Amino acid sequence: MKLTSIIAIYVLFWVFSAFLVMPFGIRTHDEAGIEKTPGQADSAPANFDAKRISLRASVLALVLFGLYYANYVNGWIVPGDLNLFGEPPIAAKI
Fold first, then answer.
1. pLDDT in tens, 9-64
2. Do 20 and 59 touch, CB atoms closer than 8 A?
């Protein structure tokens, strides 16, 4: 696998991980007991910390990419293993 492919796939895992970990640990102003700004959405986070989310996403992406790369090298799960719906009807007739 080329280095550019490794970087691109890691970035995809990182973005997925960032959206996955973003809601954990976030509190609204009502939950934190902080006064809201007029016009602010009730669901707006009061304690958003981009560094913490980036770190969590990086660690999770590293683990997920490590599993992906280990599967790529060792071939544990190949596309033929993912045939969930059986053989297509046309292929069965031929």
1. 999 999 999 999 999 988 988 888 888 888 989 888 988 899 999 999 999 999 99
2. no
In order of 7, 10, 33, 36, 53, the CA distances from 3 in angstroms are 6, 10, 48, 47, 26
Of residues 70, 68, 67, 58, the one with CA closest to residue 14: 58
Residue with tokens 């970990």: 21
Contact (Cβ atoms closer than 8 angstroms) between residue 71 and residue 77: yes
What 3-state class would DSSP assign to 40? coil
Picking from 12, 31, 35, the residue whose alpha carbon sits closest to that of residue 23 is 31
Cβ pair 27, 46 in contact under 8 A: yes
Tokens of 15: 């973005």
Concatenating the DSSP letter of every residue in 10-25 gives HHHHHHHHHHHHTTTT
Specify the DSSP element, H or E, that contains 67: helix 50-74
